[in-house]
Amino acid sequence: MVRYEGRFTQASSLKVGIVVARFNDLITNKLLSGCLDCLSRHGIDVSENSSQLDIAWVPGSFELPIVSQNLARSGRYQVLITLGAVIRGDTPHFDVVIAEASKGISSVSRETAVPIIFGVLTTDNMQQALERAGIKNNLGWSYALQALEMGSLMQALN
Ligand code: INI
User: Which of 30, 80, 129, 158 has the fewest CB atoms found within 10 Å of its own CB?
Assistant: First the structure.
């Protein structure tokens, strides 16, 4: 029997891409800093001249899939992380944005076989988003852990 599991150590062979939405950047910048803190504590070089990490900024969560697709198709990354914040109070097209972002990201991930972590907060209001971006817990940290697990799991499978 072969038992496949992701690892949270020995991340040195992983290259990670992060795609971040600028919309609600009060929140997404906090998610990004939680993410970088976790990656760094697990051995990923997150410095400006890192060869293990690239970060792409997009206008909003709606644009996360197309840029993720571009990065995933490049073959350079073992795992991608998408970060966004879709807040119901902001606009009536909340439902469209979150549906397109979630469907798009999952379909790119399956089409390219590159794991893409879905780090898009979906909340009813800004308070809930702030709570998930650092006031109570920074989910950016968890998204980075999930990325390490999935990136290394896919390496083990291949
Ligand atoms: N983008 C978000 O990331 N979060 C939102 O809450 C949001 N709302 O509510 O409108 C949002 N809209 C912008 C959208 O993602 C696109 O950038 C824009 O429509 C241009 O294509």
Answer: 158
